[in-house]
Design goal:
This protein has 11 helices and 10 strands. The chain is α/β, with parallel strands linked by helices. It has 2 domains: 64 residues; 192 residues, Rossmann fold (3-Layer(aba) Sandwich). Strands 3, 4, 5, 6, 7, 8, 9 and 10 form an 8-stranded mixed beta sheet that branches. A hairpin with a 5-residue loop joins β9 and β10. α1 crosses α2, α1 packs parallel to α4 and α6 packs parallel to α7.
Length: 283
């Protein structure tokens, strides 16, 4: 009996359910599209379309990888974020929906009619910085990261989005010398306490770069380093916005406040978690 789009989708879904994958229906569809070279519209409008043996084999190979809990984004090499379609790899943290709240905070701080300089600390794939630049034509920025492989991904994304004329990427850690002051400093730094990383889902604990996860004993090491530098990195009146982990907002706010920074109300994500700590350097 020939395999069809719908039958392979269903069989793939069942395999992912058996493997304990959280979103088996969606993941099966995405990998069916990638492996068979079809679109979502094809699946919806022509579900009984018969597939070739090569298409079936390609999809099965992708499903086998996902069943081993490799993230879909690593398998396909792509991830949607904000309005962007980004290349990703095992060298970068896969952009999450909650990180879009950092972009939202950034855009509220940057009027579209005013030129602005933006710094993204721990730029990874470039998701946050590039999303902001895509929305603010007069903005330009710098992305800093400790991983050369991550910077290669970010540069590729900037070029693909035709934003490379407004962004620079530099290798360096939290203490890298930066002489410039910025209108906006952004970061989604590592914030998972070291001892908790191995308890996370395999998609994260095994496949995400530990450099982008490990926040030290209490998860706050990066915030200590970054907030200490903020008065020197921000222009007077300049804004910062950081993603934080569940329950970390008060501690990060205290770190920022100790540096003389004023604070806004923490932004909540869709789960009601305080997800973005932001504020500004007084004029």
């Amino acid at each position: 009996m020939s395999e069809t789009l719908v039958s392979l989708w269903q069989r793939s879904r069942d395999a992912l359910i058996a493997a304990g994958v959280d979103s088996p229906v969606l993941d099966a569809r995405l990998l069916l599209e990638a492996g068979a070279g079809v679109s979502r519209t094809d699946i919806v409008t022509d579900p009984r379309r018969e597939l070739t043996a090569a298409q079936v084999a390609a999809v099965e190979a992708l499903i086998a990888r996902r069943a081993k809990r490799e993230p879909v984004s690593h398998i396909t090499g792509r991830k949607a974020f904000w309005t962007l379609d980004l290349a990703v790899s095992a060298a970068v943290l896969t952009p999450r929906p909650e990180t879009e709240f950092v972009v939202d905070a950034a855009l509220k701080a940057l009027p579209p009619s005013r030129p602005a300089r933006v710094l993204d600390l721990g730029v990874g794939s470039g998701a946050i910085l590039l999303a902001v630049l895509a929305e603010r034509d007069l903005a330009s920025g710098i992305g800093l990261d400790l991983s050369p492989d991550a910077l290669a991904v970010a540069r590729g994304n900037a070029a693909a989005l035709k934003l490379d004329n407004r962004v620079e990427f530099h290798l360096g850690g939290w203490d890298a010398p930066i002489a410039e002051r910025f209108d906006l400093v952004l970061s989604n730094p590592p914030y998972i306490p070291t001892a908790e990383i191995d308890t996370l889902a395999p998609e994260v604990a095994v496949h995400e770069p530990r450099l982008a996860l490990d926040g030290g004993r209490d998860g706050l090491d990066a915030y200590r380093a970054i907030t200490a530098r903020l008065p020197a990195l921000l222009k007077p009146g300049g804004v910062f916005a950081f993603e934080v982990g569940k329950g970390q907002a008060p501690a990060v706010e205290a770190l920022a406040g100790a540096q003389g920074l004023s604070l806004d109300a923490a932004a909540l994500d869709l789960a009601g978690i305080a997800r973005v700590v932001s504020g500004r350097l007084p004029d």
